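Quick log. Single chain, no ligands specified.
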Amino acid sequence: MKWSQTFIPTLKENPSDAEVDSHKLMIRSGMVRKLSAGLYTYLPLGTRILNKVINIIREEMDKSGAIELLMPALQPLTLIELSGRIDAFGDDLLRIKDRHKRDIALSPTHEEVITDLIKNEVSSYKQLPLIFYQIQTKFRDEARPRFGVLRSKEFLMKDAYSFDIDIDGLNNSYQKMYDTYCRIFDRCKLDYLAVEADSGAMGGDVSHEFMVPNENGEDVIVKCRSCDYGANIEKAESSPIESDDNLELWELKEVSTPRMTTIKEVSEFLGIESNKMVKTLIYTYDSKNVAVLVRGDHDVNESKLAKVISSDEITLADENTVVKLTNAPVGFAGPIGLKTQIIADQAVSILKNCVVGGNKADTHILNANQERDFKIDKVSDIRYVTDGDRCPKCNDVLDVSHGIELGHVFKLGTRYSDPLGAKFLDSNGKERPIIMGSYGIGVNRILAATIEKSHDSNGIIWPLPLAPYEVLIVSINIKDETIMNTATRIYDELCEKGIDTLLDDRDQRPGFKFKDADLIGIPIRITVGKRFKETGELEIKLRSKDEVLYAKPENIISEIRKLIDSLS
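-> predicted structure:
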């Protein structure tokens, strides 16, 4: 392709509304343009890169034995009602009515649609196992779209679904997709982690996320310094904290803490570290109340708490409920004398002489101890892991960092086949629910994650498999017949050999062209300019390195082949 015949509108300045590097560089390099919040048009350069990713995904999915199909982007709302996920999606679910006043959703994902298809097409164990996949647009009405394509309202997803007769079959399908994802991300040259994850609104018992560690990521990763343990923050666990049983139990002491409702305020006022304090939070679920205790420097993990109490309908109690239950305004609740079920995190259960709310306005109590002063009904892991906690597998230190989620795999079991009635007849003629798995990749996110990890102050540094072109030829002076004829001849030769090449044939200054070359990040650059006129040599530069190589025109194909092999 010749630059003059395509459309690459580069910009010299960062867009004012871009917060992260990938967003800035995707705009500046002419990959995308923003239509409105969370909606982007992919320009020719961005489309080429997107198609490179899609081709890698399609090749590996096909190699795994998965079968490609394409489902509608619209689906009847009644399907999502059957699965019970309308509340789980909440306001993220984009809904419309057709001319017949029927409720339709713009699909955020396709579990219900594919299950409905299989329900009507599969009836016997002889038709299983099956894995279907598609590459399709998804929609979620993000309240605050940000970070460019990392959090948008419309995005491209590769989603796959497995159908098996039993759990052993599901385990095989799950491992097959897990291994396929590793091959996909390896081919994309991504430094990724596969970590245990919470299944969230998708349902199911087991899931893993594929994450690229990055400070701009919105997901939080917990990783052991020594062993292979890793999990997202919703799922992560830590070793139990050990108790100091030798501590003497001191007498209770009530202290005045006027208008001090936060751990920080009380800690500073009393001169006591927050890890010696206990937060008492009142939650409501299934028309019941429960008091939840966590250490002052910890936070409740509501996903874990929901599993402990076996309810998805869990919310913090309103102010009236807190006052009625504790006889105190919000901020002064404590476990002593509390007449409701009390669930405590393990870190609280081993505390001695801790500080708790006094269940009275402007009051806290020192030296509270469980058993002596209050009773815990259930002890469980109900908190988020923090930096410095210990690994549940090897007991080394856990680190907490941010990451970008690229893919997620789930063992769904019968989460969708039961409510939607997807069944099969087994070898004994008995009707049983189909066992399912679900596997997603955020295609757009691969582009953004790659840029976040691979760029410098001058622009993007594309790995060869994802680059829009493998080679960029820069003709320094298009009005110089010798230079331009040589550049064009080399361009034709490279194209003829199947090497994806862009020729910068614009009538622009050399500095302008070199800045654009660095900005768009094509891996190999050939310069036909002053040195060629003087010595007959072409300059070859890798975008990822500072050194410059030289080659005669007659050797350029073999030299470029070597470089491509080294970058592949």
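Residues 44-64 form the longest helix (21 residues).
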